[in-house]
Structures are given as structure tokens and as C-alpha cells.
Design brief:
A hairpin with a 2-residue loop joins strand 1 and strand 2. By secondary structure, the chain is of the alpha+beta class. The longest helix is centred in the N-terminal third of the chain and has 27 residues, at 145-171. Among the domains are: 21-227, no CATH class; 393-494, Immunoglobulins (Immunoglobulin-like, Sandwich). It contains 17 helices and 16 strands. It has helices at 31-49, 82-103, 106-111, 113-129, 132-140, 145-171, 176-182, 189-209, 211-217, 220-223, 239-242, 252-262, 265-286, 306-309, 330-342, 354-357, 367-388, and strands at 54-55, 58-59, 61-64, 69-72, 75-77, 234-237, 349-352, 393-399, 406-407, 412-422, 428-435, 441-442, 447-451, 456-464, 472-481, 486-494. Strands 8, 9, 10, 12 and 14 form a five-stranded antiparallel sheet that branches.
């Protein structure tokens, strides 16, 4: 059988793999980009600062895996509290459903680690190699001393930042001040491995793969459409207003802007409308015959392609919503800047629902949004209540396995081993009481046990009956901590068979 690939399958558009050039984004300023920068500073600030903060004499955020304890700003979580981790994962998933159904891929555009770290790597690239045109020229130029210096500086800064990221990541699991004091020679093999692994992953994903992670590796891009509807806010281009596209005469933009600023609004609007009509007619006459449109048919899009040049995934939003779009808003800022210059209203590209673009009303409060919001608020309330009311005491009562019971002259005795774990950060004293029938009581009562902070203690205790007891009796041990926490543990008391 001929296993050669048919020629028609490797034509443009049908290839199994299409090699993509490195996307060089144009820098853009605007309200959404300022919001993204703020998100980057806040999120990375928390990531790099939290391990260095101190709380009650220890690292504020530390996930101590060998001890199986997590410390988060004065709260300590033991393995028995991992139900809260499950709740956090459920809350994260529900939040993703809610915000995606409401406003699209906000997570991808503003808070995803891939987006956040890529933004920093792009800043470093722009600082070392210049603006977009300079970087494109550098890409096309032969290797020389200047290119080697610029590329070498870029990669050196990338590597330093990636290593710092890896060091901070390990610092969440090993005390970061100890790591810094010991230096690389004092680190364990696992600490060194994870530092290098996370650094290489950061360097590769944010420096080289970038948009490829969003387009090919992230599963969210593939199933986002399942959470969208026609009322979901998305990055949308208005084709009714923008099409057909066409260039504008140079110099008209400044005249329009000045007219709007100097003339009364009614006069300026009429003058600008007439000027735009004349300019569109001139542009249509200058266009080739095959693309010429009637003057009144020329849309607001001047086909400057800035929306494509600023896109981190390299798509053209004018072709409609695509799964590669991460809703970063860069194209909105670029287009708004162009509209301001030529005197047109903003919003040719904007956050809007599909219904709004089609001229139909948009419903924000719809059944799925209400359902997601109700579930999310319930989960958040349950999580907050559970964390604030969780027990700081773990108690377990084990019967003596060597003897079921022991008979004396006037009573029956059962031996137990009481295990108490103090989950608080302070020493505690615990009072043990027994609720049982037939006069069964603890020998040597009252019984008290002391446990240091985060200590687990084991104490043998004996329960004895006030007289002859036969058969099995249900008993309950009550452990009360000095801070008021209370735990009840059910057990059994055995006597001779009747």
C-alpha cells in the first residue's frame, strides 16, 4: 500500500502541521491594558511576597508536605482538613463556569499564570530589543555582535527571572529563608530538582511557547464554547458598522478631532459627517475597481490591522470570535485609539454579546447565571463557615487489644488508649469525661491531658464499673479543650458474658 501523503493534503490550509512564525506584538496602551498590568503586578506581587511574610513567628504561607501541614496566614490545615481543599477546587470550577458564562475568558486574559508570566517576558523582550519594528528587523538581520548582545541579554534576564520564579515556588514548600541562607550547596536533591524544573517550565512556556500553550495545549480553549451563549460578553467586532473596510485620507483625523473640540456639538457633528462622507468618496474612488465600493457603503474600519498586530495569539478579530482569543482586550484598546484619532466613536471592537452586535437586547440575568451565582455563593458561604468553625482538636479512643476486660473483686475494668492531636498554635489542656450506664466511670477522674502546640499525645486511661457488669455497654468519651472546643468519641465497655 502506498503510504505517501497525497499532494492535495499538504496544500496550504490542509497541511497536518503548519509552522508558525514567532508573533511580535505591538505595544498598546488603553484601559484594558492598564487593567491587565495591574492584575500582573497584584498576582505576581502575591506570588513573590507571600513566602517572605511572617505570621505568628513562622512563614505566613507554607505547605509543609513532610509534616502534612499547610499554613496559610495563621490557619493551619491537617490531612483531616483536606475536605476544604476539595471545596476550593469545586469553588474554582464553579467560578470558571460563572465568569465564562457571564463575560467570556476573563481568566485567560487577566489571571492565567501563562498570561501573567508571558506578559513579564514580553516586557523584558521589549526593553532589551525595542519596539515591534525593531524586533522584526532584528529577527530578519544576520547574526552579528549587536544581535548576539541583544538576544543574549534577553535570554539572560529571562533565565534569571525564571530561576527566581523556581526558587519562590520551592519556597512555598520549604522555608524560603532557610533556602536563601543555605544556598544551592545546602539544598536537597528534590529542592534543586523542582527549582530547576519550574524555572525551565517558566522559561519555555512564557519565553518560547507563549500563544502555542493557549492554542494547542490548554483544554479550556476547546470547550469554552460549551459555556457560551448569545448573551455572553465576548470580544466582538461590529461588522455592520465596520464593513466594508477601506483606507482614510491622511491628515483628516486631526482636522476632525479639532473640529469636535472647537465647534459647537451640533455644528461639529454636521461638519464631521460631511467631511467623512467626502473622505469616504475619495477613498472609494482611489481603490482598485475590484474592491471599490460606493461612498456611502464604506465602513468605519480603516483596515490599519493594528488589532492584529497587538493580538498575543496573532488572530484577526474581524473574522469573528475564534477559540484562540484570550479576551485580553488589546484589540479594543488599539481600535479605540484609532477611532479617537480619526474622530469616529469608540466601540468598533468592544466587549459585547452576540445579540448586542446583531442589534438585539442582551440579558445579563438569565437562568444559568442565576444558578451559577447561587451555587457559588452557597459554596463560598459553606467554605467560610467550615474554616471558621472547624475543630482544632482530633481525638481517638482505641481499646486495649490484649484483654477484652479485666475483673477485680468488686468491678470490671476496660483499658483504652486516648490519642489527642492539638491542631492549634498554642499549648492546650484537655479534660476527659465519660458518659456511661451502670455506674461505669473513669478511674482517677477527673482526667486531664496537656498537649503542646501542634502536638499529638497518647494517654492510657481505664474505665471501671461500680459493680458487676455483664455483656456489652455503649459508652461515650467527651474531650473538652481549654479554648472550648469539644469532641465526643463513641466506644464500648465489655464485661463477662451473662
Amino acid at each position: 500500500m502506498d503510504k505517501r501523503i497525497p499532494a492535495e493534503l499538504v496544500e496550504e490550509g490542509n497541511a497536518f502541521y503548519v509552522s508558525e512564525a514567532h508573533i511580535q506584538m505591538r505595544a498598546v496602551d488603553g484601559r484594558f491594558q492598564r487593567l491587565r498590568k495591574l492584575a500582573v503586578w497584584v498576582l505576581l506581587g502575591m506570588f513573590y511576597a507571600f513566602p517572605w511574610l511572617r505570621w505568628d513567628g513562622r512563614q505566613a504561607v507554607l505547605f509543609d508536605l513532610p509534616a502534612r501541614k499547610f499554613y496559610v496566614f495563621g490557619l493551619n490545615f491537617w490531612p483531616q482538613d483536606f475536605v476544604f481543599l476539595s471545596m476550593l477546587l469545586i469553588i474554582a470550577g464553579m467560578s470558571l463556569f460563572f465568569f465564562t458564562a457571564l463575560a467570556g475568558r476573563l481568566w485567560c486574559g487577566y489571571a492565567c499564570p501563562q498570561t501573567v508570566w508571558t506578559e513579564v517576558f514580553v516586557w523584558i523582550e521589549q526593553w532589551t530589543e525595542g519596539d515591534r519594528n525593531s524586533r522584526l528587523k532584528l529577527d530578519a538581520s544576520p547574526w552579528n555582535r549587536r544581535k548576539i548582545m541583544r538576544r543574549g541579554t534577553r535570554h539572560a534576564l529571562w533565565i534569571v527571572f525564571a530561576l527566581w520564579t523556581g526558587f519562590t515556588f520551592v519556597g512555598f514548600f520549604s522555608p524560603i529563608r532557610t533556602l536563601a541562607a543555605e544556598g544551592p550547596l545546602g539544598w536537597s536533591g528534590w529542592e534543586t530538582f523542582w527549582l530547576l524544573f519550574y524555572a525551565i517550565a517558566t522559561w519555555g512556556n512564557a519565553g518560547f511557547l507563549r500563544e502555542q500553550v493557549c492554542k494547542y495545549m490548554c483544554p479550556y480553549a476547546r470547550f469554552q464554547s460549551a459555556m457560551f451563549d448569545r448573551d455572553t460578553l465576548i470580544i466582538a467586532y461590529d461588522p455592520l458598522r465596520g464593513e466594508p473596510r477601506g483606507p482614510r485620507k491622511r491628515g483628516l483625523d486631526s482636522v476632525l478631532a479639532r473640529a469636535r473640540g472647537l465647534l459647537p456639538k451640533a455644528v461639529a457633528d454636521a461638519w464631521v459627517t460631511d467631511a467623512v462622507r467626502r473622505e469616504r468618496a475619495a477613498a472609494a474612488d482611489a481603490a482598485p475597481a475590484r474592491t471599490r465600493h460606493a461612498p456611502e457603503d464604506l465602513g468605519d474600519c480603516i483596515d490599519c490591522t493594528l488589532c492584529v498586530q497587538v493580538c498575543p495569539t496573532g488572530i484577526d478579530i474581524r473574522n469573528g470570535l475564534q477559540y484562540e482569543c484570550i479576551a485580553c482586550g488589546a484589540c479594543i484598546d488599539a481600535c479605540d485609539g484609532v477611532m479617537d484619532k480619526i474622530g469616529y466613536p469608540r466601540g468598533l471592537i468592544r466587549y459585547a454579546s452576540q445579540n448586542a452586535v446583531d442589534g438585539k437586547p442582551t440579558r445579563v440575568l438569565r437562568p444559568r447565571i442565576i444558578l451559577y451565582a447561587a451555587l457559588l455563593l452557597t459554596l463560598l458561604g459553606g467554605f467560610a463557615w467550615g474554616v471558621s468553625n472547624r475543630s482544632t482538636l482530633i481525638a481517638e479512643v482505641l481499646r486495649d487489644r490484649n484483654a477484652l476486660y479485666r475483673e477485680t473483686a468488686d468491678s470490671v475494668e476496660n483499658d483504652y488508649l486516648l490519642k489527642i492531636a492539638n491542631k492549634t498554635m498554642q499549648p492546650q489542656r484537655y479534660r476527659i469525661a465519660l458518659v456511661a450506664p451502670d455506674g461505669i466511670a473513669l478511674r482517677g477522674a477527673p482526667v486531664e491531658v496537656r498537649a503542646d502546640a501542634e502536638e499529638m499525645v497518647s494517654t492510657p486511661i481505664t474505665a471501671a464499673s461500680g459493680g458487676p457488669v455483664t455483656g456489652r455497654r455503649n459508652v461515650r468519651f467527651i474531650i473538652v479543650a481549654g479554648d472550648g472546643n469539644r469532641v465526643e468519641v463513641d466506644s464500648t465497655f465489655f464485661g463477662p458474658s451473662p
